[in-house]
Amino acid sequence: MTHPRLLLADDHRIVVEGLRSILIPEYELVGIVEDGRELVDAAKRLKPDVIVADIAMPRLNGLDAVAQLRKEGCPAKVVFLTMHKDATYAAKALEMGASGYVLKHSASTELLMAIRAALSGGTYVTSEIAESMRRAAETRTASLEAPALTPRQREVLQLFAEGRSAKEVATVLHISTRTAENHKARIMDVLCISTTADLVQYALRHGIIATD
Fold first, then answer.
1. How far apart are CA 33 and CA 17, in angstroms?
2. Which residues form the Response regulatory domain (predicted)?
3. Which residues contact 164 (CB under 8 A, 6 or more apart)?
């Protein structure tokens, strides 16, 4: 019997090891990656049936990684496994094309249900935040959205907020140092902020980088 192919993205090795015992009986674990850029590359190369990904990952967060994959036509089902309890994160995840949203402390009881729902064409949101997500949808709070920023600007924002230099950002994105600096200046102008510290705080508030 052929098991569905699964790609796991999480930069916490202890979490990954714990998930193996949950996933391996039902799924073929084709790869494990530790950041969003590796996730994009691995998904295109390995062509998994389902992706289980954290939101808070270095170099490129899970939401933006999945947005890139969707833009490029990746058909894999996506289930986010995260510590973020805020319903607006779940709403954002579904907007990005995810089929599931599970809190990490519920993984042992809910992750397999979420994956099965995703593979059958359904949607699963962890029970702890499903009701608050419905309430958030009614008020339509957009606290995590940054509509004024382009996908490339969000990438640049994350890298600078992680403490990388303009040269390092340029290397990751295959652009010139001057272009990286120009992106940063434009981002700060759009967001009406004046310091790198403000940039970091914005990225933290909007889930672009992890709090840990």
1. 13
2. 5-119
3. 172
Please give the Cα distance from 15 to 49 (Å, whole number).
21
21-67, pLDDT tens digit by residue?
899 999 999 999 999 999 999 999 999 999 999 998 999 999 999 99
Q: Where in the chain is the domain with CATH 3.40.50.2300?
A: 5-139
Neighbours of 180 (CB within 10 A): 23
Summarised one tens digit per residue, pLDDT across range 97-149 is 899 999 998 888 899 999 999 999 999 998 778 777 666 555 554 444 545 78
* DSSP string for residues in 78-139: EEEEES---HHHHHHHHHTT-SEEEEGGGHHHHHHHHHHHHHTT--EE-HHHHHHHHHHHHH
Residue 144 CB coordination number (10 Å): 18
> Rounded distance, CA 54 to CA 103, Å?
10
Query: Which amino acid is residue 207, in one-letter code?
Result: G
Assign residue 97 a region (left: φ > 0; alpha: ψ between -120 and 50; beta: otherwise): left
| The CATH number, out of the four listed (3.40.50.2300, 3.40.50.970, 3.40.1190.20, 3.30.70.260), of the domain defined by the range 5-139 | 3.40.50.2300
Q: What pTM was estimated for this model as a whole?
A: 0.74
Q: What is the CATH number of domain 151-205?
A: 1.10.10.10
In contact, 60 and 30? CB cutoff 8 Å: no
Phi, psi of 91 (to 5 degrees): -60, -40
